[in-house]
Amino acid sequence: MRGVTATSQSLVDSLKEYVIKSYTMKPNRVVIEVEASKVREVFVKLAEVLGKESFYLSTIEGTDFPEKKLIRIDYFINLFKLDTNLVLRAYLPRENPIIPSVIDLVPGALAGELETHDLLGIIFEGNTYLRRSFFVPEDISSKGIYPLRKDSGV
């Protein structure tokens, strides 16, 4: 693994059963790619290893890759005890982008899940608050348009 610090390596080691690929993006920022179905398990493992109060989910970001027929989802997590940031990354099929919700584990994920759903169409399974027009105007959402999809025409 290129450019991995000792801190990052200990994090990767604690999550090794989930890691598909990992690398250091820049100092104190490690990217760990996992299967979408395992995202919840990684959050549970982080709470187990670091403690529930030792990390903070700052952002959920989705990126559309129509040429690959995929949507990438990144969870940006501040890890206080390790003085580093984790980007937990997963890829979803563009035609059926479903991933388990983490709002019961990390309540602060609610706005990020709602925003990513409204803008890209990702379905966070188990999130009973999902709805359209959270960020997107009604005239756009009523047409089934997801503005951050590169072929949306918006």
Describe this structure in words.
The chain is an alpha/beta fold and 154 residues long. The protein has a single domain, classed as Beta Polymerase, domain 2. The protein has helices at residues 6-14, 39-50, 110-120, 138-141; strands at 21-26, 29-33, 55-65, 70-79, 84-93, 98-100, 123-125. The strands form two sheets. It has a five-stranded mixed β-sheet. Strands 6-7 form a two-stranded parallel sheet. The chain is globular and about 50 Å long.
Helix content: 10-25%
Q: Which ranges are low-confidence, i.e. pLDDT below 50, for 5 or more consecutive residues?
A: none
* Tally of contiguous helical segments: 4
What is the rounded Rg?
Answer: 16 Å
Largest sheet: 5 strands, mixed
Q: Please identify, by name, the CATH architecture.
A: 2-Layer Sandwich
Total number of beta strands: 7
Mean pLDDT score:
92
Biggest sheet: strand arrangement: 1-2-5-4-3
SS-based structural class?
alpha/beta
- H/E element order: HEEHEEEEHEH
**Cα distance, first to last residue?**
39 Å
CATH class type: Alpha Beta
Oligomer: single chain
Q: β content, as a range?
A: 25-35%
CATH superfamily: NADH:ubiquinone oxidoreductase Nqo5 subunit
Q: The CATH topology, please? A: Beta Polymerase, domain 2
What count of domains describes the coordinates? 1
Q: Could you say which overall geometry the principal axes of the C-alpha atoms support?
A: globular
